[in-house]
Amino acid sequence: MQETQNEQPIQDMATPSPMQGYVKVQPKKPWLAALLGILIVGAGHMYLGKWAKGIAMLIVGVILSILTGGILAPFIWIISCIWAYTDAKKFNAAAGY
Question: Alpha-carbon distance 77 to 38, whole Å?
Answer without folding.
Answer: 5
